[in-house]
Amino acid sequence: MSIPRLLNDPLLRAARHRFLGLWKPLLIWYAASGLLFFLVLTPFMTWILRQELLRGGTPVVANIDLLSWAVSRRGFLNLCLLIGAGLMTSVVRFSGIFLLLQAGINGQTTSVPLILRRTLRMLPRLFNLCIILALAGLVWALILGAGVFAVHRALLSEFDINFYLSQRPREFHRAVAALTLWLLLFLLPSLWLLGRLLTVLPATLAGDYRLLPAIRQTWRLPKKRALRLLRLMAVFLIGFWLFRLLTNSLALIFARLLLNTALNLIPSVRALLILAGALISLNTLFAFLTGFAVFTLGSILLICFYFEETPLHHEAPHKPAVPVLPRGLRHLLIRSLRPGVLLPLLAVGSLFSLAISALALSRLPDMNPVYISAHRAGPPPAPENTLAALDAAIACGADFTEIDVQLTADGRVVLVHDADLMRVANASLVVARTPFDQMRGLVQIPDDGSPPDRRRVATLEEALDAADGRIRLMIELKYYGFDPSLAEAVVEILNRHPSRNRAVLMSLELPAVLQLQELVPDLPVGYVLSVGVGGLQQMPGDFLAVNRQLATPAFLRRAARQGREVHVWTVNRKQDMIDLIVLGVNGLITDDPALALRVREELQDMSPLERLLLRWIVLALPEAE
After folding, report:
1. How much is the pTM?
2. In CATH, which superfamily holds the domain spanning 371-620?
3. In this structure, what are the phi and psi dihedrals at residue 276, rounded to the nearest 5 degrees?
């Protein structure tokens, strides 16, 4: 079927007609349900995580340990609960749209408060459905992940994964081909299965069938009908994605032109601040309206298909009983969420928020001291974790040089990031299984023009000597299988060196952080966090070194309240540097320390209001310089 015929499909026309006829109550329902569930579910999900971790006796589950936790019985069950709770917003939104549309199809009058009451009665059934969907999604993800893991073990396990990602040898391309084949073999049947079962949701919400009978009845529908629904959904979603891409591009061009013109014509910083904030607000509003249109039209399309293109509703044998909330709780919720109560509360909350925002603007803090750390010893083109890289970091004026250390087979502490030397020296030597003398003669790549002796595998003692008095060291202990002797060896070397107090230590491994805190209680010890769950107050370490995606305003505020420094890695774009420094990070770990130093200097010369304005412009214009 051609695209024009699909776009002119009677089902799409019917969905558009019903959307235009009900857009006002649909918009109110979409906004109110999202706001209410955000306020209710966020504390609930946080409580679940906290209770799980406290019962498990672990302060935090992070980095590679997160995978082990997820596949454990306790972690798997808690993930089902968390994902199920997260799905509630979308399912409840869909149920409200379903009830509004069902009333229209049956010629009944309804309202948002009435829909809210009916939805409250359905909450237990909706939550059970979300838990089942979460369980199915996790099983699906485990099967997909098992295939990816099998490809990795078969084709990419000889050397460290960083070698394959950077050098891309023949094995890498074979693995990409195998992964592509596996994804096609897995995802295409998955999409087909999803298309066959999409009508299960309206069938259960209508009360026509229980879940298992709904699945059986839906599966018996003619394949042509399921394929038609899948094609319509695909065309609809792709069309909206292309529309959003086009409008975002046009909005970006317009915003850049407007802001660049305003920067030249308007001398007032406050006026520029208002303009930047207005542009961001308009973009946020447009994103909300686009999300509303996509979700609501897609839902209506599915509901119309169920009622008008399938016999399921008319052939339903019975109406199963609907579990309800306790009467007292239901009446309390209904009274609390009436428009006469809810709207004044929202108005008061909005006014309070505006007052707090105005007060915050008048008391903007000064910029935190920000340390610039050269990632893996120093900036390219110097080979990473070499004395040449350390020399380059000193030359550009970085505050720290961040280095990775491991133990060799004979107990020497060397500066190497990967488990082997294949990526950095074209040598298939595993660090933990190789004596230092065998790797000492290797000259690392690339050749930046520095003497070969400065590009050989270096020891921690050599790095301390080279950095002594000129730059501080941020030493990350790298483990490929935890070994407590690494921390002991590092501490022993530090205790013998005069620059001991100019070093800080950190690791991705929780046991290593706890061990280091016992061995050197007077030195700062940091926890490197890539991904994790758990409260910040339960994480070990004197400071945190976190992935860029984790450095949210809320995360940084919690860290500041606890007096913990936060260093963010690996930050190489000027836009990200500006954003993070204005947010209040304490350090940037970067491959371009010279750029980070210039950004820090420029921001230090600005007022707090100017820095906030600059951050808003960066958020509005990701390519702004």
Report:
1. 0.70
2. Phosphatidylinositol (PI) phosphodiesterase (3.20.20.190)
3. -65, -45
